[in-house]
Fold each of these.
Amino acid sequence: MEIEKEICIERRIVRILFILYFFDDKAGAISFLNDRVSVIESETKLQKIDFWICYPDHLAAALLRGCEIEGLGNSKLINRKQEVCSAVRDILRNREPEIRWIPMRKYLRGAYEPLDEVMVFLVSRNLARRRVVENGRRVHYELTSRGSEVVQTMIRECQETEWYAQRCRLIRDFFNHLNGFEIRKLQYLEAAYAMTPHEQMIATIETEVRARFVKIFGMEAL
Amino acid sequence: MITLNDLVTQTHKKLTEGNFKFLLREQVQEIVGSTDIAKWLGSESLSIPMSGLMVLKIAMRGHKWISHDSSYKEFEYQRTLGPGINGWIADNSTGKSTILKAIQWALTGTKPVFKSDVQKWIEEIAVEIRVSGEQYTIYYQLADGKLTGGGIFKEPLESVWAEIKPLPETPFLNPNAAKQRVAEFLGEKLGFTPLERAIWQKYAIDIKVTTLSWDSYALALFINDDDYRDYFFPPLQKDRSNLRQRALGIYLGLDLLKALSTLEVARDHARTDYNFESKRINTDEQGLQNEIEHFSNELSRVEERLHHIESGSSALIDVTYVSEIGKKISEYTKQIVDLNKRKVELSAEEQQINTNIANTERACQALQEAISFKVFLSGLEVEKCPHCENSIPSIPVQEEVQQGQCHVCKNQLQSVTAVESHQSMLESQKRVLEQLKKDRNNTTRELRKIETMLEEVRKEIEPYKAEFEDLARQQKVGLTEEMCILLNKQGYLRGQLEQLQSRTKAAKATYLQDKKLKFEILKTSMGILQSVLTQENQNVLALLMEQVTSMAQAFGVRNLSKVELDDSFTMLVTQSQGTARFEEMNFGERLRLKLAFHLALLNLRIHQDIGRHPKFLLMDAPGSAEMSDEDFVAILKQIADIQKAFGDQVQILLATTRPEFRDYCNPENLELLSFGETCF
C-alpha cells in the first residue's frame, strides 16, 4: 500500500518508543548508567511485541492459547479466563484485526522489521539508545528520560497514541514474564504464522480466532 | 366246478378280446379276488334236507262282527290237515283265503294282506307243523290285526292252544322279531341258505344290500289270487327277477349260488359307483369349466398387474401429475439457482466492499496517526548524532532553514514532507470510504432483497418438493400393500385352479376308467360264473323245463313247443308264433305256465329228489280266472297224480269255489261248505 510506505516510519517510531516505555527488563533495579529509564535486553523481544501490536488477531490467538494449553510459561492465563475473554472480545468487537493490522514480513526467526531507521530518529532526538553488550552478541534497547517524557506528553496530547498505550499495557499485563524466545515460540504455535514462507507477509487469522473464541467461551465475539 | 383262477383267466381273456386289449391279468385278479368269492368256488355244497314241510293243524280264534246282531261274537276255527291234497270248497267271502293266509303268515313270518275288517277279528293263530321229522307249533297273539306276542313251541298245537305257555327262548315281541325268528328256524330246517342281494334305490348314491332269507324264499310256495306277473313269486313282491334267480337256485339246490350272489352284489356296487361318479363328474363339468375360466381370467389380471408393477410402470401415480410437479419444482429450482448465483455474486461484492472498507478504514487510521505523529515528532529537535551519540550544538531551526544547510553535516537541507499531502490523502480516503459504505448499503439491500426472494421461492417450492418426495413413499406403500394382496391372491387362485383342474372330466378320466374297468371286470366275471352255473346245472334245468313244457301243454297253453330258462332264469316260451318272455304272454297263459312251473318244481323234488323244495304248496283260488273247466280239470288231474304217487310226502293246500275239486280230493281232507256257511 502506497500510503503505508509514506506513513509507516512515524507509526513505527511511536510503536518502538511506546514499547520501550511500557516494558522494562530491569524494572525495579537501580540503574548506575546515566539517563536510563527502562531497558529491553533483547531485540527479539522488541520485534515480537511489535508484531503483536501490528497483528491484533495473533495477539488474541496467543491469549486464547493460554486458555487452552499449559506450558510455555503462559499457563497463568488459565486462571484468568474471564480477563482473556474480555480482552479478546474487545479486540474482535473493535474490528482491530481489520483496522489496526499493519503488515509485517517473516524472516528466519519470525516477524521482523529493521530498526536502524527508527533508532536513528530516536537516538538523534535523545529518546532512546542502543547498547551492544556481551562482545556484540546482544543489543540492549534503552529509553532515556527524555524519551519517557515525550511518551508521557504524547499520551497526554496526542489521542492517537492512546490505543498504543493500552495495547502495550495489555501485552505487558499478560505476557511480561516471557522473554523474547518464549514469545517467539508462542507466536510460532499459529500455523498461519509458522507456515508463512521466508520474507513473505504474515497472514491474518481473524476468522480462526473468532471460531476458537466461540469454542472456548460458547459465544460470538460480536 | 370252476376255481377263482379259472374265473380270472376266463374274465381276462374275454375282456382282452373285447375293448380292454391292454388289461393285465393282475388287475382282474385283484378286483375279482377282492370279492372274497374264492371260498365259495369249488366248495359249495348246500345241504339238502331229506323231508319237507307239512302243516298238521291250523287253529284261529277271536271275535267276529255279526252284522245282524250288531255285536262281536267269539269264534274259533280248528282243522287238522293231512298229507296230500287238503282242500276247501266254499263260496267267496267265507273265510277260506283267510285261513290260507293265516297259515302263510305263520310259515313266513311275513304278514299277508288280509281283508281289513277280518284281520281285526283274529286274536290268536296257531299252526302245528312237521319239519325235519319233528313237530312244532308256531303261535301268534294278535291285537287289532297286529302281532303282539307268540313264539315257536316244540309242542303240539293243543297244548299251546289250551293254556298260556311261558314264552320260548326267542319270543315274538314284535312283527320283525317274529319274521326273523321264523326265517331263521325254517330256513335252517329246510336248508334255505341266506344270500345277499342288491336292491336298487331311486335317488340313492349306493345300492342297498339286503340278506335274502326264508321269508322271501317261502313266498314262492304260495300261489295267491289271480295275479301272475311272475312265474315264480306272488304279486307285490318287488324286484322279482333279481330275487328269482337266487330263490330258484336255492329251490333247485344249484351250486355256485353263494359266489354268484357275492359277485353280483360287488358288480352292482361297482356299477353304482361308476354311474354315480360319471354322472357327478359330467354334472360338475360345466360348472367347473365356468369356475376355471373365471379363476383363469382373474389370475391373468393379477399376473398382468404384478408384471406391470415389477416392470416399474405402476399406474398408482398419475404420470401427468408427477410431470406437473416436476415442472414446477424445476421452475422454482431454476429461480433458486439464479437467485443463489446472484446472492453469491452480491455476497462476494459485499465481501469485497467490506474488505475495501476495512482497507480504507485502515488507511484512514494510518493516515490519521501519521499526521498526528508527524506533527508531534517533527517538533522534536535533533540533540545527538545518531551514530556517536555526541551532542550537537543547538541551532534554531529558523536559522538553519535560512542558511539552507544542515548545521551538523553541512549538506543541503531536504524539503520536509508536508502534512498537507497526508491530509489530502486522508480526505480522499474518507470519501472513498463513504462511497464504499454507500455501495455496501446498496449491495446489502439488494442482497437482502435477493434473500427475501429466495425465501419466498423456497417456501413456494417446499410443498411441491414434499409432494414429490412423498410420491416415492406413496408409491412404495401402495405397491407394498398391493403386492402383498396380489401375491396372496395369485397363490389362492393358482391353488383353486389346480384343485379345479384336478376335478375336471379330463383329469378324472383315469379315475373313471378305473371305475368302469372294475365294473366291467365284475360284470364279465359274473356273466361267466352265471354261464358256468347254468351249464353245470343244465341237466337239472333241462329236466325241470321239460316237465314245465309238458304240464303247460296239458294245462292248455296252445301251440307250445318249448319252455326254457336263460342264464338269468328268465322264462322263455316258444310257441308256433315264436319265442316270448313269460311277461309277454297273456294272462291265461301266464296262469297255466305258473301252475305248471310250480307243480313241475314240486314234481322234480318228489320224483327225482332234486333240490330242496319243501314239498308244500298253498294254492288259493287257482281256477277262478280265465280258466276253462277243462284246463282246471287238467290242473287238478296233475295234482291228483302227484298225490296218488307221493301223497304221504307232499302236501298241497288248495282253496277254491269250484265244486269239481271234490272229485280229486279225499273227503277226509276236504272241508266243503254249503251255500251260506262260513269257515268260522
Note: Residues 419-502 of chain B form the longest helix (84 residues).
Amino acid sequence: MTDVVIKVSNLKTYLEIGDMVVKAVEKVSFEINRGETYCLVGESGSGKSVTALSIMKLLPKGIANHPTGEIIFGSKQDLKPINILNVQEEDMRNIRGSRIAMIFQEPMNSLNPVYTIGEQIMEALQIHWPEISDEQARKKAIKALADVQIPDPEQRIDEYPHRLSGGQRQRVMIAMAMVCEPELLVADEPTTALDVTVQAEILKLMQNLQKRNGMSILFITHDFGVVAQIAHKLAVMKQGEMVEQGEVQQVLDNPQHEYTQKLLAALPENLKQKNRAAMLASFRESQGKNKDEKDIIKIENLKVYFPIRKGVFRHTVDHVKAVDDVSLSIRKGQIMALVGESGCGKTTLGRTLLRLIDPTEGAFFYNGHKLSSLSQKKVLPYRRDLQFIFQDPISSLNPRLNIATILTEPMSAHGIGANREERILLAQDVMQQVQLAPDYIWRYPHEFSGGQRQRIGIARSLVLNPKFIVCDEVTSALDVSVQAEILDILLTLRNERGLTLLFITHNISVVEYISDEIAVMYKGKIVEQGDTDVVISSPEHEYTRKLLSSVPRLHHRGYITRFAD
Amino acid sequence: MIEMTTKNKVRTSSGYARTILKEAFGQWSARIGFFWIAVIALLAVFSPFIANSHPYLIKTNTGISSPLLKYLEPADIILLSVFITILVLVYLRKRLMFSLLVVLVITGITSVISFSFVEPPQLVVYEKYREMEKQGKLEWVINAPIPYSAKDYLRDYGETGMEEPLSEDGRTHWFGTEQSGADVLSRMIHACRIALGIGFVATGIAMFIGIILGGLMGYFSGIVDMLGMRLVEIFEAIPTLFLLLTFVAFFGSSLYLMMVIIGVTTWPGYARYVRAEFLKLRKMEYVQSAIACGLPLRSILFKHMLPNGIAPVLVAASFGVASAILFEAILSFLGLGLVDNPSWGQMLYQAVQSASFYWWMAFFPGGAIFLTVFAYNLMGEALRDAIDPYLKKTS
C-alpha cells in the first residue's frame, strides 16, 4: 500500500492579471500514497486552492501558466503514470471525475438546482462509462447515496437539491465524486460552510469511504482542528510556498518552521493557556467590588416570529419561530457567548436586542429601561449605548464613504464633539485603540485587508462610547492569526472600558478563550447556560454534549472517529 | 505627515464615481458618444452665434452696433451663463453636489435677470440687414458663419422652398432649404436645443419621481411597497405615445407639455430599479449598522443607500434620454410636433410630405437623430459595463 498515486514536484503556478504576475504557487513538491489523506493548510491567499486547481487543470488557460514542475499521476498497474501538465484538454476531461474527483466548499452552489440529484449522479457515471444502461446507473447511484448515508436513497434520488440540507448536499457531492471510484479525491474546504456537528459526520464519512476504497485524499483546509482529525500527512503553505511538511503527529507536536509555530500559537485553544488566566484574574480583581452588579441586559420570554405569507392577500399561514421564548440576563462587564448552529436564531436574537428586528412577544430591558416596546424614534437615544459589530468585514462598511465619514457621522448624529475637527481627532483616538494608524482615516474601505476592516467595524461601534456591544461572528471570516489579534483587542477594550459583550459565534474554541458565561441556543430556544468553564467541562443538555464532542481539536487526535464509532 | 493625508484626501475624494467614469470613458465607443453629445451641446448653446440672420457687427453712418446681441433672447442668455458656470466648475474640480447646487442657483438668478431686463425687439425683420447691405447703407458688416436664422424664410429672395443643397448662386445653403424656404442647416443647429432639452428635462422629471417613489418603496417595503407597485403598474399600462397624441390633439403642441408627459409616464422604470436596489441594500450590513448607530432617516436614505444604488438608474437614464428624443421625433414626424420652431423630426416629416422625395430633408435630420440616439446608447452601454462587477477581469 505504499505506491504513489500522485507526485507533484517543483510545481510553479503563475497567474497573469493584466500586467501583473501573481506567483500563486512557488516550487511546491509533495507526494501522496494510496489510501493516504494529505492536508494542505494555510491562511487565505496562501495558494492551497490554486495547487488543487493546478492538479485538476481547472485554471483558465490564458491566465495561468506553469514555468516549471510536473505532476505525475497514476497508480493503476495497467496504466502508465502520466504528467498531468502535458495532458491534452480532451484526455483531461476523461481523467477528471473518473480518476481524480473534486468536491468544493459551497454545497449550496455546486449542485445544479434544475436537475434531481439522481440525474446529476447518473450523468457523471454515464459520461465516464458510456456502456452502462440507465437502470444500472440508477442502481449504482442509489448505492452511492446509501454509501454516503442519505436516508431512503430509493426515494430521495428523485429529489431536487433545494429539498436537502447543507450537510446532505455535501454528502450528495461526495457521492457524485465517489461514484466513479477515483484514485484521488481533491477536497477544497469541504466542511468549512457546515456546522460543527455536520462537519464531524462528513469527516467520519470520508474516512470510512477511504478505508473501504483505498483512495487518496488531498484535503485543503485552514482549520488545524480538522487536520488533526483527518490527516495522515500535512503541509503548511505560506504565500505560495510550502514551509513545512511531514507526518501529522510530528508537525503538530513539534513544529519546526517559525510560521507553523505562529499559526499554532494563534489558535484560540492555545491562546487560552497563555493569556486567559492572567487576563481574567486582572479583570476580576478590577471588577472585584462590583461583582454583584445588576444585570445590564435582561431578556424575558422573548419571541421573534417571522410570518410565512401565502395567497393573493398574503395572509399569514404559519410562523418561523426564530427566537422562541428566550430568557437571559447579562451582568455588567461580562462577556456572554451565544453559541449554536446556523439557523438557530442567535443572530436574530442579537439584532432584536438592538431593535433592528421587532420582537413579536416578550420584553427586554437595558438598565431597567424597557426597550422592546419603544417606538423606533424613542429608541434613538439608546442607540448610543447599544452597539453592533457585524460578521462580514466587507459588506459592513459603506464602500462610498471614507473612514473619516464612517466614524464621525454617528458622532455628529448623537452630538458628540463640537465640530468636525474635534470628531476626527476623537475618531483617530479610537483608531489607535483598535491598532490602526490614525492617518488611514482618509482612505476608503476597499483599501484595507479583512482584518483591518473588522477593526474599523469595531472602531465604528466604539466611537459612540457604548456600554453594551453585540458581536455577531466577528472573527469567522478571518484567518486564525488575525482572529487572535481581534480577540485580544476585544478583551483589552473590555478591561479598559468596562464593556459588556454578547459574543455570538459557532466556534467553541473562541468561546472558551473569550467568554465568562455561555448560552447554548438550539432551534430558537436556549437549552443551557452558565459559567463557560462549567458548561464546557460538564455539559448537561444532550445538544451541548453533541456540539462539544463534534469540535475538532488539536489535542484529541482521532477523537471524532472514536466518538462516532 | 499632514501633507500626505491631505493629498490622500484630494486623491480619493470621489473614489467610486471617478473609477466608474474613468473605466466607462476609457472605452472608445463611450468617448465617441460623449464627443458627439458634446458637439451637439456646443451647437445648442451657441446656435444664435453660429446661425443668425443678424450680423455680429455693422457700421452705419450713425456708428458701430451689434444687431445680433440686440436680438438675443432671454433663453440664449440663460443657456450661455449656465454653460460658462459649468466650464468654471469643471475647471475648479468642485464636488458634484456642490456643482449641481451652483448651477441651479445660477440658472435661477439669470432667469430672473434676463426675463426682466432683456427685451429683444418684438418685431423681427430678418431681411432688414440684408436689404440695408444691398442698398449700401452699411459701411461694412460681419456676418455669422451661417447668415440665416432658423425662422428666416428668405422673403426678400422670393420663393425659396425646397431647394437642393448648393443649387442656387448668390446664396449658400449647405443642406438646402425646407418647405417654407428657411435654411435647413440653420434649423438643424437651432433644433439641437430641443433635442437635448427634451431628453434631459423629460428624463430628469422621470428620474426625480422614480428615485423618490422607488426609494421609499424599497426602504419601507410592506404596505408602502404594495401600493407603490400597483401605482407603477398603472403607469406602465399607459401607452406614452397615445397619451401624447391625445394631449397634443386637445391642448395643441407644446414642448413643455411633451417633456412633462414623457417624464410622468416613464418614471416607473426608474422606480423599479431603485426599489430593487433599495430592497437589496436595506439588508446590507452597512445600512443595518447605520440604523444601529442611530443615524437620521435622511442620512440613511440619501447618504448610505442612494449612492450605492444609483448606478443602474444612471445607465437606464442614458437610454431614457435617447428614447425621449425619439418620442419627440416621432410626434413631429406624425405632424403633431412643434409648428414654427425647428425640430429634427419635423424636417423628416417634410421630406415625405409631397410626391417627390426631398433627400436632403431626410438625410441630414435623420442622420442627426440616428447619431444622437446612437451616441447616448454607446455611453449607456459603456456605463453599464463599468458598473457591472461580473464583467470586470480583475478584482
Note: Chain B has 16 helices and three strands.
